[in-house]
Amino acid sequence: MSSKTQLNWSRKVVVYQIYPRSFKDSNNDGIGDLQGIIDKLDYLNDGTEKSLGIDAIWLSPIYKSPMIDFGYDISDYLDIDPVFGDLEIFDRFIKEAHKRNIKVIMDFVANHTSDKHIWFKESRSSRHNSKRDWYIWKDPKPDGSPPNNWLSVFGGSSWALDKRTNQYYLHSFLPEQPDLNWRNIEVKTAMEKVLEFWIHKGVDGFRSDASYHLIKDDQFRDDPGNPNYKGPKNSYKRFLHIYSQGRPEALDTINTFCSILGLHKDKYIVSEAYLDIPEMTKLYKACSNGLHAPFNFNLISLPWDAQIVKSHIDNFEASLNKNDWPNYVLGNHDRQRVVSRVGKKRAKLLAMLLFTLRGMPFVYYGEEIGMENVGLSSDKQKDLVGNRLTANRDGERTPMQWDESAHAGFSIVKPWLPVGEKYKDVNVKKELNDPISMLRLYRHLIHYRTHNHVLLHGSYRSLGFGNRNVFAFLRELGDEKILVILNFSKDEESVSLPYQKAKVVCTTNREKEGETINIKKIILFAYQGYVMEVIE
Ligand code: NOJ
Q1: Which of 179, 204, 209, 431 is an active site residue?
Q2: Can you tell me which atom of ligand 1 is nearest the CA of 172?
Q3: Residues 454 and 530 placed together within one structural domain of the fold
Q4: Does 464 share its domain with 517?
Q5: 511 is known as an active-site residue
Q6: How far, in Å, CA of 503 to CA of 510, rounded?
C-alpha cells in the first residue's frame, strides 16, 4: 500500500488536544481563546519541518457554559462561550486549520447538560413539563432517600433531590450536570441535530465524552459491591458499576453517532471510556463502519514494566479487527502530566513508543515540551471536582509555556491558573533551539511518522528475546522493516537481534541519527530508545 492510498484521515493523523482555556490568550483576560489558538496554528503545523507537524486538533469544549466543570457542563450546544469567542471566530478557526491541513475534532458532551440549559430548566419546572422525560427523574424511596445506591464519579450519590417537584434527578458527575435520558427519542433527535450543526460548520470529527455512561439500567437496579475493593469507604470504586453505566444499549447510542457521521464524507469519532481490552473490543463493535474507536488509556495506568507494556500492546493488537483503528494516549486534561508521572527520561521513551505504534497517537498540549503538573494550594484551586475528590485536575491544565517572558508568553495579564515554576527552562522558544529537547524529539518523531508509509500503514510484531527489561517491535510493510527498541530499565542493557545492520532514524538522546550501525548485539543506555530502518 503506498502512502498515497486514500484512507479516512483518521488513519494518518497525530492528534493534538488543546485545552482552550490554557493554550493562548489573545484578548488579555487571562483565559485562552479561539483567536489565541488561530494565532498559534503555525506552531502546530505550518507545512514545514520547523513546526510540530500534528495534523488534527481535538478541542476540549468551547460551547456556552457556566463553567462549573469548565465547559463539560453545556448550556447551549449551538453556540460558543464568549470567553472563547463566537461562531464567526469559530468559522475562521476552521478555515485557518483546514488551510494548514489540520483536521478539527470537537468535544461532544452527550451524557449530560448544564443545569442551566433551557432543556433542564424546563424539565425541572414541573412533573408534567414536556421535557420532564428528557432527564432521569425518580421518586425518593419511602424514607426519602435516593432511589438507589448509584454513585457520582465525582463523589457522593448520583441523585440530587429537586425540592420543587420532590423527585430526584440523576447526575453521573456534578449535580450541576444532570444526565440526559438517552432512552427518550426526542433527546436522540435533538442531539443528532447538534452533531449535524457542527458537521455543517466543517468539523471533521468528535470526541464523545463519558460514552460508557450514556445509558443506564432501565430497572434502576443497585450496583453490587466490589468484592476486591479495599480502599476508603466513600470511594467510587467500592461498587461495580454494572447498572449505572456500561450498559449494552450504550453501544446503540454510539452507533447512532456513527450513522450520522456516515452520512457525511470522511468523519471520525472517538469515545471516552477507561476500559480494559475486552471492554474496548465491545466498543469497537458498536459501529460497523470503522469511523469509531474507544480511547485506549492503558499506557497511562500500566506499571512501568517492559513486559507488561509489551503484552498489553500484543493483546490489544490481537483483539482488533481489520477495520478497527487503534489509538494511544499518554495524558489528558483529567490525568497527571506524563513527565510528573514517570519523569523526563521515561517520558521520552514513551513518546517514542507513542509515535511508532500502529494507530492514532494523541498528544495533550504541553506534553511536547515536557510540562509538569503545577501544585496549587487549596485557595488557588479552580477545579470544583478537586474539592470533592482527592484528585484535583488544575495541575495538568496550567497555561501553555511559550517563552521565558512574564506569564510564559501565554497572556500579558495574570492567567486563570499559574504558570509552571520551571517555565523559563521548559518553554517552546527555548526548546526549539535545543537539539536534545523534548520538543525537538517530538517534532522529529512526528515528522518521520507522517512521511513514513511503514509507520503509517505497516503491521506490528513484537520481538521476544532474553532481556525482559527491553521491549522491541517491528513495523513491517512489504520488505521494509522499522525496528523500535526501548529500554525500560534504569541500567544499561544489551540485546541480541536477528538482524545485522540498520540505519538509525531516532534515539531518545539524539545520538547516532543517520548512522548505519551493526545491530546483531546492541547496548542501550538507561531508558534509551532507538528507531531504526533495518538494512539486513
Ligand atoms: C470526562 C471529561 O474528560 C472530564 O473533564 C469531565 O469532567 C467529565 N467527563 C464530565 O463531563
Answers
A1: 209
A2: 10
A3: yes
A4: yes
A5: no
A6: 14
CA distances from 27 to 17, 44, 85, 88, 386 (A): 22, 21, 10, 16, 28
- Does 319 reside within a domain? no
Averaged pLDDT, 276-300: 93
73 included as an active-site residue: no
**Digit-coded pLDDT (tens) for 243-283:** 999 999 999 999 999 999 999 999 999 999 999 999 999 99
Task: Give the distance (Å) from ligand 1 centre to CA of residue 271.
Answer: 12
Higher-confidence residue: 351 or 5?
351
> Does any ligand 1 atom lie closer than 6 A to the CB of residue 383?
no
Regarding the beta carbon of 266 and ligand 1, being less than 6 Å apart is answered no
Q: Convert the pLDDT of each residue in 75-91 to its tens digit.
A: 999 999 999 999 999 99
Which atom of ligand 1 is least distant from the CA of 174? Answer: 10
Confidence of residue 427 (pLDDT cuts 50, 70, 90): very high
Per residue in 458-477, pLDDT (tens digit) is 999 999 888 999 999 999 99
Which domain does 384 fall in, by range? 373-425
Q: Which of 136, 151, 170 is the last residue of a domain?
A: 170
Task: Please list, in sequence order, all residues whose beta carbon lies within 8 angstroms of the beta carbon of residue 245, skipping any fewer than 6 positions away.
Answer: 172, 212, 213, 216
* Residues 58/268, Cβ–Cβ less than 8 Å: no
295 lines ligand 1 (CB under 6 A): no
Strand partners for 22: none
3 state SS of 75: coil
376 or 92, which is more confident: 92
Domain of 126, CATH number, reads 3.90.400.10
Residue bearing the CA closest to ligand 1, atom 11:
72
Interaxial angle between packed helices 306-319 and 277-285, expressed in degrees from 0 to 180 and rounded to the nearest 10? 30
Q: How far is the CA of 355 from the centre of ligand 1 (A)?
A: 26
Domain with residue 527: its CATH number is 2.60.40.1180
For residue 496, tell me if it sits in a domain: yes
329 in ligand 1 pocket by Cβ < 6 Å?
A: no
Q: Which residue has the cell 453521573?
A: 172
Q: What is the pLDDT of residue 387?
A: 56
Give the residue, out of 19, 63, 113, 173, with the most ligand 1 atoms within 8 A of its beta carbon, to mutate for a pocket test.
173
**210 CB within 6 A, ligand 1:** yes
Among residues 410, 425, 440, the one where a domain terminates is: 425
Average pLDDT, the chain: 95
Residue 6 has pLDDT above 70, yes or no: no
Answer yes or no: is 391 within a domain. Answer: yes
